[in-house]
Fold:
Amino acid sequence: MTADASSAPETSENPEDAEHSGNSGNLGNSGIPTASDASRWLVCETPRPEARGRLVCFAHAGASASFYRSWGRSLTEVEVHAVQYPGRANRFDEEPPDDLLRLAAGVADALEPLADLPLSLFGHSLGAPVALETARELQRRGIEIEHLFASGSCDAPLPAPFLGDEDPDEILEELVRMGGTEAEMVADPIFQEVVLPYLIADNRMFHTYEMAPEPLLGCPVTTIVGDLDEDADRRPWSTLTTAPVQEVGVPGNHFYLVADPPYPILREALSTPRPSS
Structure:
């Protein structure tokens, strides 16, 4: 999702990743499970018991944890966990979330047991504010985040509120324009039946989210923006943390990371000790 052009939803989701799991779990409001079902929140394709830290990845609107499937094989320095939002993939039987703050609280519940190692968060587009609120929630619980990466987001004042269009045809057109999904996939009736409902729900959740200026984070923030990205989320990152904020430009549009994931940027930032350490 984007804040200034966020009527344009986005996904790189494959409908095959959204199969019904047949396990309803123990659900609370808005499809968010209780702590007993927290294992459904995180997917780790490549466990690394020897890793000295963990990178938690948050997907964009209409996507699932599978978007980061290959990252754990490439980022050998950390153990990569991808957040599985309700309403898709193995959580297809749950209602999509409708409250971003409650979504972040559910992710924080799942991450608490993993805080024995340093946690860094990476969020792309909609995933950036979800990562922000998850970091805030963990910080409230006494868990400090090492680094937050806001991809498809730039350090800029918040735009005026925008009510996203939920017309399915226009949503699908914008999806193709942004480059998140090929036109052939968008035209697939299975894609429209499976993915479109939670894509619309993600869009609605983003546009009803009101970001508070505090609490401030204590971790560094790196924003990563494609030089052709006209749909970047706009968020005043430099006012949201007491630590340094760095903006990195990369070639490409809003979905630059599909063809060229920002592994070098992540490695450099994660290998640099924090000033307080």
About this structure: The first strand starts at residue 42 and ends at 43.
